[in-house]
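queue> pop job 88
queue> type: inverse folding (structure -> sequence)
queue> payload:
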């Protein structure tokens, strides 16, 4: 049973309103740069790297299996011109594609090339060590996953389909299905999303607000979120000042000259350039448990519910109010006028977590300037920039009405893009979100993403620190995989792999 040493709750929660997300398109329009002057080769990058397609609210994710290499390659050739690129355009639909390492192998990519991809991508998300590391244990154990687990069919291809309306999405899905069936691919499942919850997640909070900006593409006024392209795109310089690790191919293996040259000047071709790793996790949210726990923790002394206190504690757990306003900037109540503000720092403005708890989800997921050994310094921000994620997920399942209880499946199709799975996604998940000793705390993991049952959470409630204990796990993992989302030229190369290269060579 969840408990809190809570006495009184502050009041003053203002109204809530969600503002439209600022997309990459809008940022590019605002900067007014012709695309040719941008340092990133956006025309060769799949558009999801730059934008979440917020103008296309309908979305689904078909998961497919390639049955035969040549037919798989023919499928890639058939859809490559349908794949949306990073250049801004008026779109009614968008198509993106990514592959697991098994998928690249099933296309016939030689092992000598495949083995140059990163280790977690090659090993996959599932494995005893990785599951422990990521906190995928108990209810979240891959043994129980609905897809991507050891006892479910292997996933090779992830399609990401976006459309402006439901009929357009169904048309696009039907067109894609005709194409994959014509090339003998099998459908594993279609993951659906909920367009009505675009920009919002099931616990009731605005989502997708804080994103890194890519240097050379997204113009920004502040350095706080500006990150080198090599943090998100292979073949570019990263935050260490180095070109990313990436798979390079002997020129002889690229007879059509599909691939970009190696920017570092070797005679090889760059299969990684303009591609990125895509982390996909289907995260089921137990909204009933979340609400009941908050209710139990915030009841009035006479046992009646205290809705305002419930909202206050929930905001402390997330680190933002339902509108998206940060607790650092709006510590006493929601303020939708601050919903998109994202230039605050923690050490600078709230060193001891008196406004936004140290263990709040957003403060763990991106501690900004609060990192040891020199919190508040430029060095701290420099370290932080090496652990950023571009989040591109969508909500799935029906919204649960206030006070309603049902058994529906709902949650987040969590998608993160990064150039280095270990240093970015896995580090954030392991060392920040589920680390019980994060930033001087003890015995508590992220209150939203959680880890084990009986989690704890500490928040300061004007001015007394309170510790809630016995929190259940609100989020479980029900599927997932690591993918590679290639650049457009790399896609063409994959579609034209010579027939005599052996996947097992
Ligand atoms: C169902 C699970 C999750 C829910 C409900 C959730 C919810 C939220 C919300 C409401 C925000 C604040 C709005 C925003 O800035 O976009 C946020 C931010 C964020 N979340 Fe999550 N999240 C979940 C899982 C995760 C996971 C698994 C990760 C990483 C491994 C993650 C990483 C982040 C990051 C990096 C931010 C931005 C923090 C910042 O830059 O200030 N989230 N999340």
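queue> result:
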């Amino acid at each position: 049973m969840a408990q809190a040493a809570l006495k009184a709750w502050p009041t003053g929660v203002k109204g809530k309103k969600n503002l439209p997300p600022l997309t990459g398109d809008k940022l590019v329009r605002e900067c007014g740069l012709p695309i040719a002057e941008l340092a990133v080769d956006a025309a060769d990058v799949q558009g999801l790297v730059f934008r979440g397609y917020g103008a296309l609210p309908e979305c689904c994710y078909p998961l497919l299996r390639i049955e035969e290499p040549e037919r798989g390659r023919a499928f890639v050739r058939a859809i490559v011109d349908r794949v949306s690129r990073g250049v801004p355009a008026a779109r009614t639909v968008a198509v993106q594609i990514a592959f697991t390492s098994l998928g690249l192998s099933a296309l016939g990519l030689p092992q000598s090339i495949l083995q140059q991809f990163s280790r977690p991508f090659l090993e996959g998300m599932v494995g005893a060590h990785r599951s422990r590391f990521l906190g995928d244990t108990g209810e979240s154990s891959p043994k129980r996953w609905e897809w991507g687990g050891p006892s479910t069919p292997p996933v090779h291809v992830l399609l990401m389909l976006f459309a402006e309306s439901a009929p357009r999405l169904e048309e696009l899905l039907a067109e894609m299905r005709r194409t994959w069936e014509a090339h003998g691919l099998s459908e594993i499942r279609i993951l659906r999303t909920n367009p009505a919850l675009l920009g919002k997640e099931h616990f009731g909070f605005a989502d997708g607000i804080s994103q890194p900006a890519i240097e050379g593409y997204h113009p920004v006024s502040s350095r706080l979120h500006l990150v080198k392209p090599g943090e998100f795109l292979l073949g570019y310089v990263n935050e260490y000042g180095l070109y990313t690790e990436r798979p390079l191919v002997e020129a002889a293996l690229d007879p059509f000259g599909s691939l970009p040259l190696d920017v570092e000047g070797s005679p090889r071709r760059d299969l990684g350039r303009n591609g990125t790793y895509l982390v996909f996790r289907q995260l089921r949210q137990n909204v009933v448990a979340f609400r009941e726990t908050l209710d139990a923790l915030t009841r009035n002394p006479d046992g009646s519910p205290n809705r305002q206190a419930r909202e206050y504690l929930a905001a402390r757990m997330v680190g933002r109010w339902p509108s998206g306003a940060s607790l650092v900037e709006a510590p006493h109540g929601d303020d939708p006028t601050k919903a998109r503000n994202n230039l605050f720092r923690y050490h600078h403005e709230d060193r001891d977590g008196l406004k936004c708890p140290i263990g709040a989800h957003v403060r763990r997921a991106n501690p900004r300037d609060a990192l040891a050994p020199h919190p508040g310094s430029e060095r701290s921000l420099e370290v932080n920039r090496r652990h950023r994620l571009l989040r591109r997920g969508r909500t799935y399942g029906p919204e649960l009405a206030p006070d309603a209880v049902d058994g529906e499946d709902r949650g987040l199709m969590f998608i993160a893009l990064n150039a280095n799975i270990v240093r970015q996604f896995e580090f954030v998940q392991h060392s920040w979100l589920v680390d019980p000793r994060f930033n001087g705390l003890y015995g508590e993991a992220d209150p939203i993403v959680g880890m084990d049952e009986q989690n704890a959470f500490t928040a300061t409630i004007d001015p007394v620190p309170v510790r809630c204990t016995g929190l259940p796990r609100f989020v479980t993992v029900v599927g997932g995989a690591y993918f590679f989302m290639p650049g457009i030229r790399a896609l063409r190369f994959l579609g034209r792999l010579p027939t005599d290269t052996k996947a097992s060579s």
